[in-house]
Amino acid sequence: MQPDACSQQPSCEVLEAVRFPILTFDEWQHGRTPGRGFNPDWLLPGESLISILWKFACANALPGDVLMRTMCPDADPREGMIPLRSALDPNQLRRLLGLPVNVLRTSLLGRTSGDRYHAAFRYCRQCAAHGYHSVLHQLAEEHRCAAHRQELRTQCLQCRRQSPFIINSSVIEAPFRCVWCRSHFCYGLLPVRSTTPAMRRQDRLAIQDRMRLRLGRDASGGSNG
Ligand SMILES: [Zn+2]
Ligand SMILES: [Zn+2]
């Protein structure tokens, strides 16, 4: 594991606390607590699959390669895939994450004309501070966050590199962080409770409205108010 940039930041106890143990898939399945998984209260409208998987992996102390092998047994965990509807089956994801299929379908990008997307991971710093990444952030024609009106960024503020918009074991082990230098995408301060939906109601509504405008009825599954 790389030296942890987190160790200089006192505000990241939560993600420190869930530092990933090395488990085989069988060990994880065996020790899995029934009912533990993904709390729907953590979900924000239009949340992307990678954002959901980061919370799920943290909540279950699940190493990236174990999660990848569980989710896509046929794929190489280090290579992974782009989270598109053509690559991942929402019904299979539902069995793992316990979330409704329409939420999971919304969390993936399609290949329709309205869904042209960025190949690099794109983020709003304030959303990252809330432990949230939106499918909207990846759409080519979106330039600002619907909630915070901040410019969407692709470059890491520390190393200036871009993280790819893919799901693989390294990306899963860098929640809301640059995959190269592990700096956090927000203002350097991690939210103490990254899984709490601390986003203001008006911000959630703004995202929801934008989801409806951009993705039509598809968006309905990604919102919980
Ligand atoms: Zn934002
Ligand atoms: Zn970086």
Which structural class matches the secondary elements? mainly alpha
| Sheet having the most strands | none
As a percent range, the share of helical residues equals 25-40%
Uncertain segments are 1-22, 192-196, 220-225
Given the structure, what is the number of helices? 9
The beta-strand count equals 0
Q: H/E order of the elements? A: HHHHHHHHH
CA gyration radius, whole angstroms:
16 Å
Strand content: under 5%
Mean of the pLDDT scores?
80
Polypeptide structure, described:
This protein is mainly α and 225 residues long. It has one domain (13-217). The protein has helices at residues 13-17, 25-31, 49-59, 64-71, 90-97, 101-107, 125-129, 169-172, 201-215. It starts with 12 loop residues before the first helix and ends in a 10-residue tail after the last helix. Bound molecules: zinc ion (2 copies). One zinc ion binds next to loops.
List the helices and strands and how they pair.
Blueprint: H1 13-17, H2 25-31, H3 49-59, H4 64-71, H5 90-97, H6 101-107, H7 125-129, H8 169-172, H9 201-215
Helix pairs in contact: 5-6
